[in-house]
Design goal:
The chain is α/β, with parallel strands linked by helices. It contains 19 helices and 15 strands. The chain has a 6-stranded mixed β-sheet with strand order 3-4-14-9-10-13, sandwiched between helices. α10 (216-235) packs across α11 (255-265). The structure holds pyridoxal-5'-phosphate.
Length: 455
């Protein structure tokens, strides 16, 4: 399988490992597979078997033995997915949010990709985070050989649990800094370091890269749980093999839902993917009208991991609809005016938007009827699904991607339900006894110094 950049008119082809090493293409595009292989016989397999069967179709310059080893290292310590009625719980990993599903595998795919391309350097992952990504990156990378991870989060800008998850993370190769500033300041500063060749040339033994969701090695592992959840529903007798289903996906950067779209292209019988957004409704408007317009107020909501106005993975979807030339036009327009439009219908998608008030009502409603506690992101998905069903009357069996444990966002749950969170998962209850290892708070202009001292 080869990969091309969404913006490369010449269509230069890369191997999987080359695309993983590069992360973002030099022309600013994202790497996409040249075609979509079909996956057969996925019913009844374990999670690890499904992961191997999906990944070996895409990572064709990895051996099966390599993939098996990395999948075992990433997933064998926990049951990756639990299905609870219509909820596909993707939050049983180390940091209790769905990003663990990809980030526990990512470091192995990255270091193997470096080896395959004879890059004999230590990978330094720099990450600016508003919470979930940073904690998932460092817990996935702790003590992985030939890697270092440095995370920057805004002081006072993450939840108590997210802060604890990051500041207590052990691992010789891990460093965490709080910065005086907001998330955008951190993000901008990290981007500048990535572009600062002069600075990087001081560190010959290192290669600087990023673990954000534009990297193929984060996207591909997410395809797995669509096939696996479908198979589990067949096993549970909720659907018959071959029957179509819908998936509801609480969406921010469009990474999770894009993996569902790829699964559909690989033959999974999916009817609709419902893109659930909070009041940062840039994707809602796009799916309804074909116009993407980022010129709008940014809102802080109860589902912070979906607070986003530039959905970077959307570019891969747009590429699939309209092709390379139109992507170049669209993204030049986005850069110049903050707006682009496409006219292709998006019939495989639908969308609903959910306010904070509706999110809290959704948490309460499901608790009252089923004694099941939703986190605010999953609640956005739940309410979006109810709205969709009322509007369309679509009775297709539907699964809801459950992206975080309610224990990771206790404040929202508390305002909906009061004190009901009495049985935290180990990954969260153990945090309180852990020593705080990372206490540094730095000014944003000192981040080069901070990185240099650590390396
Ligand atoms: C990151 C995240 C999302 C959004 O996923 P995307 O792939 O960015 O669309 C939703 N819920 C939670 C809990 C997350 O951490």
């Amino acid at each position: 399988m080869n990969y091309v950049s969404t913006r490369d008119i010449t269509g230069e082809k890369l191997t999987a490992s080359q695309a993983i090493v590069k992360g973002l293409a030099p022309d600013g595009g994202l790497y996409v597979p040249c075609d979509f292989p079909q996956l057969h016989n996925y019913i009844g397999n374990s999670y690890e078997e499904t992961a191997l069967n999906v990944l070996k179709l895409y990572l064709t310059d990895f051996t099966e033995a390599e993939l098996k080893e990395y999948i075992a290292l990433a997933y064998s310590e926990f049951l990756p997915i639990k299905i609870c009625n219509e909820y596909v719980e993707l939050f049983h990993g180390r940091t209790a949010a769905f990003k663990d599903m990809a980030l526990q595998l990512f470091p192995y795919l990255l270091t193997a990709s470096l080896r395959k391309n004879n890059v004999n350097k230590t990978a330094v992952i720099l990450t600016a985070t508003s919470g979930d990504t940073g904690s998932a990156v460092i817990s996935g990378m702790a003590d992985v050989p030939n890697t270092r991870a440095v995370v920057f989060y805004p002081e006072g800008g993450v939840s108590d649990i997210q802060k604890l998850q990051m500041s207590t993370q052990a691992g010789e190769n891990i460093k965490v800094f709080a910065i005086r500033g907001n998330f955008d300041d951190a993000q901008t500063a990290v981007k500048e370091v990535f572009e600062d060749r002069q600075f990087q040339s001081n560190f010959d033994d290192y290669i600087f890269t990023s673990a954000n969701s534009i990297n193929l090695a984060r996207l591909l592992p997410q395809i797995v749980y669509y096939f696996y959840s479908y198979s589990e529903w067949v096993k549970l007798g909720k659907i018959k093999e071959g029957e179509v289903v819908n998936y509801v996906v609480p969406t921010g950067n469009f990474g999770n839902i894009l993996a569902g779209y790829y699964a559909k292209k690989m033959g999974l019988p999916v009817n609709k993917l419902l893109c659930a957004t909070n009041s940062n409704n840039v994707l809602y408007d796009f799916i309804k009208t074909g116009t993407y317009d980022k010129n709008r107020e940014f809102a802080l909501t109860l589902s912070p991991s979906m607070d986003i106005l530039i959905s970077s993975n959307l570019e891969r979807f747009v590429y699939d609809l309209v092709g390379c030339e139109a992507v170049n036009e669209a993204y030049a327009s986005l850069k110049n005016t903050g707006v682009f439009s496409i006219t292709k219908p998006m019939s495989m998608l639908d969308t609903e938007m959910v306010s904070d008030e509706e999110t809290l009502q959704g948490i309460k409603k499901i608790y009252d009827s089923d004694a099941y506690i939703l986190d605010p992101h999953t609640a956005v998905g739940q309410v979006a699904y109810e709205k969709y069903k009322n509007r369309t009357g679509d009775n297709t069996p539907t699964m809801i991607m459950s992206t975080a444990s309610p224990y990771k966002f206790p404040d929202a749950v508390k305002s909906a339900l009061g004190n009901v969170l009495n049985n935290p998962p180990k990954s969260i209850s153990l945090l309180n006894g852990k020593p705080v290892l990372h206490k540094d708070v730095i000014d944003i202009q000192n981040i080069r110094e901070a990185i240099g001292d650590f390396l």
